[in-house]
Amino acid sequence: DRDIRLANLQCFIRDVLSRFFDRDVEIRLRPGYFPFVEPGMEVDCTCLCGGKKKNCPLCKGSGWLEMGGCGMIHPNVFKAVGYRAGEYTGFAFGLGLERFAMLYYGINDIRLFLSGNLALGQQICSDRDGIINPLVSNFIAGKSIFDICIAVVRA
What pLDDT score was predicted for residue 121? Predict the structure, then answer.
């Protein structure tokens, strides 16, 4: 689009995370390198503990959890696909689904997702009564992160 700024990216990511977790979240952007964007940034959001638990397994007491990366699309990317330099601006982002699940379910070790532990899958997919958890049912119903992003763009 035209006239997309870093402030648009920041508001977009904050809105996506807030809608996903059904609560207001704060985000912070830290410098980081990602190909094809300049500037590139790491996206952190507030941990469930709010930084009040020094022994929090998710944030280690910092109050922040890294969620992914983002940045403004480099002008050379637009030029490479045939757009005139400076005519369009935009942003790109990538958010780790494991981090969403960690915050949503209170999973304290990201390595559990790669462990092959079937109990973890059962915990995520259903509660004690065997009822499918809301996050999983949202994905089954087609209400994915993508759908939330589209709703934020349309708002």
Answer: 64
Report which residue type is found at 66: E
Which residues have a Cβ under 8 Å from the Cβ of 42 and sit 6 or more positions away? 29, 30, 31, 32, 66, 68, 69
User: What is the model's pLDDT at position 141?
Assistant: 43
Phi, psi dihedral angles at 68 (to 5 degrees):
165, -160
Whether 121 contacts 95, CB under 8 Å: no
Q: Is the pLDDT of residue 116 over 90?
A: no
Whole-structure pTM value: 0.72
Residue 74 clears pLDDT 60, i.e. is over it: yes
In this structure, which amino acid lies at residue 138? N
**How many CB atoms neighbour CB 36 within 10 A?**
12
| CA angle, 21 then 18 then 120, to 5° | 25
Say if residues 80 and 47 touch (Cβ distance below 8 Å). Answer: no
